[in-house]
């Protein structure tokens, strides 16, 4: 079974909104035959009642048109149960997260029901005591069906999911909440995986232990029984820590979806544009604010272009505009005058399509125009090339140092004053790449010069630059091993030459199966590529988890099915989760790997989707935290907040 999130989304839409003639559906069924469903035209109007957790899930998965087509005429929030209007002639679909907060709101609604009959859908497993409390509150017996579906996450693309960080008032253990969301994803995908996590991450150790505990516990409820029965090899849940790759979010992306997020920010598949942005090259200057919904399902141009680099994107958009001009010319007023009635009818029926076509062209024109504007304003043709050169070691260190100084002195070829943020990103990349504190001190001196930098960097930004190498330079087991090899094989005087070779290996540039892009702006490959290469195509004697810095946990059912050496099996299905945030560039990498190797099924997700600004804000917070907690006391402080239940599960 391929790992396709769109298939899950469609199956759950049928489950939620199609009326089934057979009422014996079971709770764990995730696909519904449309042959047993009642046509929407024969379904009476219904109300959809959501909570704050399922609202973004529904909004990202389904359009208003789809809901209306299935006679959902009203959407309300359960938390406002006291303000609902009584409409007993309407039935209600309730779709909530089975947390105590939403269960309490549901109980209040059931004490005074505003609608006729209720069908209750839960986006994750519900506890027995919660179900009993709902049954006690249903004194009018208005609930006709209770079904668990597993959708406690947001679907962004076919291969990209988001575990939202919204927490309920009763959440005392964020690790437990995070693991429950990942459990729902595994159940939706029907996978019982081996768990591999980066062994140097305390956060991932806690999360993986909780996941293993829940998988083994839920096996008693038969939820994870036989999920792998059609798989020759066990699936893999790969848990990664963003702190082990702090540079990928800092590098300016050059593909369409990533650039939109970098310059405009995509929030729940929506881009908010101001009047200046949305009216670019348009006469509609009266718009103050506008929302652009990005959907790879409903926008063919976006689906075909989301992973294109900027050059290919502009070429494709030019052809798209020419196609629009050609089709609209055929339907012009002059052509209408000379067209016979049958042809006229065909043209008129296409008018709504032309309107949709026109709107779509204008949408992408606005997006691409704003991207182009930001590239020019930020001088990213030069800055982006320098970022790639530093990250990939495309030039010797002295030349790169001089180029960084040119930027800090505002004496580049373009003679443009580079923004403070872009200067900081260059310094961070350089400090991560090279172990030369004197160079960083010189850069800081230039950065703090008010005649060269406006605005001046904040104290948190300065602290980040000073501590970046210390905090993140040795986080990665892979990086540590490579650096040790450098020091053993050559003296410190030759560390630069060795580091260049090792970092090229880190980015997997010498792998014959890897196609190096000729585009200077696409030379960098996220560290994820190295890890996946080691898992998918392990080298002899190097496939052990230790060489990749990974630890392994194997659920009981997987051991029973595949034996004690289950972790040695070849990998076909990989579910990736990056704690600390994933990037759209890593999603693109997953897409390209899947396209080039149809044997491998990959999806990726995280607890956020980062751009460089978001990641920098997280970095500032990390530095402040480390500054406030000298030494390693922060670790003890964190441990003191872990409740006894989690400690017990760590031991187990």
TrEMBL record:
Superkingdom as given in the UniProt entry: Eukaryota
Polar residues: bias regions: 643-652
Biased composition, class Basic and acidic residues, residue ranges: 628-642
GO cellular component terms, A-Z: Golgi membrane
Region annotation (Disordered) ranges: 628-652
Pfam hit, one: Sec1
Biological-process GO terms, alphabetical: intracellular protein transport; vesicle-mediated transport
UniProt record similarity statement: Belongs to the STXBP/unc-18/SEC1 family.
Protein name: Vacuolar protein sorting-associated protein 45
Highest classification ranks of the organism: Eukaryota, Fungi, Dikarya, Ascomycota, Saccharomycotina
């Amino acid at each position: 079974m391929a790992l396709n999130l769109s298939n899950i989304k469609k199956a759950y839409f049928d489950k939620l909104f199609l009326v089934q003639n057979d009422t014996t559906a079971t709770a764990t069924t995730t696909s519904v035959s449309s042959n047993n469903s009642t046509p929407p035209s024969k379904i009476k109007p219904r109300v959809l009642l959501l909570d704050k957790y399922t609202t973004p899930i529904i909004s990202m998965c389904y359009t208003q048109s789809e809901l209306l087509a299935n006679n959902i005429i009203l959407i309300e929030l359960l938390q406002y149960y006291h303000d609902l209007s009584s409409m007993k002639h309407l039935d209600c679909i309730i779709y909530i997260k089975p947390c105590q907060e939403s269960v309490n709101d549901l109980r209040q609604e059931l004490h005074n029901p505003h609608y006729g009959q209720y069908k209750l859908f839960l986006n994750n497993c519900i506890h027995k005591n919660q179900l009993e409390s709902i049954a006690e509150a249903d004194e009018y017996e208005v609930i006709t069906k209770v079904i668990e579906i597993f959708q406690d996450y947001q679907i962004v693309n076919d291969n990209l999911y988001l575990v939202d960080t919204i927490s309920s008032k009763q959440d005392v253990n964020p690790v437990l909440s995070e693991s429950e969301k990942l459990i729902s994803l595994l159940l939706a995908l029907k996978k019982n995986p081996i768990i591999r996590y980066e062994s140097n991450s305390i956060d991932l150790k806690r999360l993986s232990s909780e996941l293993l505990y829940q998988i083994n516990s839920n096996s008693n409820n038969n939820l994870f029984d036989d999920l792998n029965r059609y798989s020759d090899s066990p699936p893999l849940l790969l848990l990664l820590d963003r702190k082990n790759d702090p540079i990928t979010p800092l590098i300016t992306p050059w593909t369409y979806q990533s650039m939109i997020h970098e310059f405009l920010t995509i929030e729940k598949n929506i881009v908010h544009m101001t009047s200046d942005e949305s009216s670019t090259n348009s006469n509609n200057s009266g718009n103050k604010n506008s929302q652009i919904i990005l959907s790879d399902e409903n926008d063919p141009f976006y689906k075909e272009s989301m992973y294109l680099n900027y050059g290919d994107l502009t070429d494709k958009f030019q052809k798209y505009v020419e196609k629009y001009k050609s089709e609209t010319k055929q339907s012009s007023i002059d052509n209408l005058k000379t067209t016979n009635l049958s042809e006229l009818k065909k043209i008129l029926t296409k008018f709504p399509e032309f309107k949709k076509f026109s709107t779509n062209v204008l949408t992408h024109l606005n997006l691409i125009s704003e991207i182009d504007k930001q590239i020019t304003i930020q001088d990213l043709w030069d800055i982006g090339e320098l970022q790639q050169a530093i990250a990939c070691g495309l030039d010797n260190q002295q030349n790169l140092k001089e180029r960084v100084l040119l930027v800090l002195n505002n004496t580049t070829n373009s003679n443009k004053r580079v923004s403070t943020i872009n200067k900081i990103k260059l310094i961070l990349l350089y400090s991560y790449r090279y172990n030369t504190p004197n160079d960083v001190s010189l850069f800081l001196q230039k950065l703090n010069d008010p005649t060269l930098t406006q605005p001046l960097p904040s104290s948190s930004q300065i602290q980040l630059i000073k501590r970046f190498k210390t905090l993140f330079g040795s986080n990665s087991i892979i990086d540590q091993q490579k650096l040790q090899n450098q020091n053993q094989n050559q003296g410190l005087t030759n560390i630069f030459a060795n580091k260049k070779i090792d970092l090229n290996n880190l980015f997997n540039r010498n792998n014959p199966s890897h196609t190096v892009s000729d585009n200077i702006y696409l030379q960098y490959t996220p560290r994820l590529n190295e890890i996946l290469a080691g898992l998918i195509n392990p080298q002899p004697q190097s496939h052990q988890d230790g060489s990749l810095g990974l630890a392994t946990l194997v659920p009981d059912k997987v051991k029973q099915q595949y034996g004690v050496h289950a972790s040695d099996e070849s990998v076909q299905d990989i579910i990736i989760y990056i704690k600390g945030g994933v990037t759209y560039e890593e999603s693109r990498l997953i897409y390209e790997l899947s396209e080039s190797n149809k044997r491998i099924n990959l999806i990726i997700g995280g607890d956020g989707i980062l751009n460089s600004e978001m990641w920098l804000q997280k970095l500032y917070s990390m530095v402040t935290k480390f500054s406030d907690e000298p030494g390693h006391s922060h670790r003890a402080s964190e441990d003191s907040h872990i409740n006894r239940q989690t400690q017990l599960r760590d031991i187990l």
